[in-house]
């Protein structure tokens, strides 16, 4: 019995030693792998929108990918949730830049072209082309404009005149198994609600108008059942 006990003790000490060794080695392996993966993630390929992206980022416009170009593009992609974030000047990155430019140009007069009705009183306007939404009362801007994330290809947010018919402050989607805080439904299963994503994160929602949490909360406080919603335009890339 003593021999068996000694053998068990040896096995236990050996297992502990291996476990400790594994714990000591693990950080080095994780750090090494992570560093290598991060370095490999920066592409050397020149994208189809290289010159446009370089100009947007105030980089030297030569149409050739450099390490500095890649780092600048990666920073933009990670800031705005563009994936994959490998520093490639592709169509999604350039489309995001154009959308941001259009959003900035909207300023405090998003309905300058009067595409959203001004004869309905309180109304939530959704411009799919610029990925913007705002609330107006007649022609007076009440809130916004704010960036939104509408439906992806195949799940487009439907256009036209709508009305809010159901509000649920903490809605659970039984279809997609996710929380939809500050949900305000205006067309079938399509609703305003907040998400923990960048508004420019591709490819888009399953038809809802995604919003930042603070914006969705303000919409919740300003709108009520029966209020008008008007959706127009077309999301880039759909």
From TrEMBL:
The active site is at residues 193, 208. Residues 121-232 form the L,D-TPase catalytic domain. InterPro entries: LD-transpeptidase (IPR050979), LD_TPept_cat_dom (IPR005490), PGBD-like_sf (IPR036365), PGBDSf (IPR036366), Transpep_catalytic_dom (IPR038063). Residues 1-39 form the signal peptide. Pathway: Cell wall biogenesis; peptidoglycan biosynthesis. Keywords: Cell shape, Cell wall biogenesis/degradation, Peptidoglycan synthesis, Signal, Transferase. Gene3D superfamilies: L,D-transpeptidase catalytic domain-like, PGBD-like superfamily/PGBD. CDD domains: YkuD_like. This is L,D-transpeptidase family protein. It comes from Streptomyces yanii.
């Amino acid at each position: 019995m003593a021999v068996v006990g000694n053998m068990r003790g040896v096995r236990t000490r050996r297992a502990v030693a291996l476990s400790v060794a594994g714990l000591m080695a693990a950080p080095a392996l994780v750090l090494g792998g992570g560093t290598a993966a991060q370095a490999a993630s920066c592409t050397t390929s020149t994208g189809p929108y290289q010159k446009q992206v370089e100009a947007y980022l105030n980089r030297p416009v030569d149409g050739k990918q450099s390490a500095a170009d890649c780092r600048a593009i990666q920073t933009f992609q990670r800031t705005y949730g563009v994936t994959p974030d490998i520093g490639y000047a592709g169509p999604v990155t350039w489309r995001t830049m154009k959308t941001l430019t259009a959003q900035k140009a909207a300023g405090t007069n998003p309905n300058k072209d009067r595409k959203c009705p001004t004869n309905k009183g309180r109304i939530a306007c959704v411009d799919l082309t610029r990925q913007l939404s705002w609330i107006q009362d007649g022609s007076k801007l009440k809130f916004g404009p704010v960036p939104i994330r509408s439906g992806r290809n195949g799940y487009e947010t439907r256009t036209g005149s709508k009305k809010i018919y159901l509000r649920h402050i903490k809605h659970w989607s039984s279809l997609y198994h996710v929380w939809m805080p500050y949900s305000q439904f205006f067309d079938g299963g399509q609703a305003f609600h907040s998400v923990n994503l960048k508004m420019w994160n591709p490819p888009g929602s399953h038809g809802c108008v995604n919003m930042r949490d603070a914006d969705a909360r303000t919409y919740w406080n300003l709108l009520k059942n029966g209020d008008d919603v008007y959706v127009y335009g077309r999301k880039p890339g759909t």
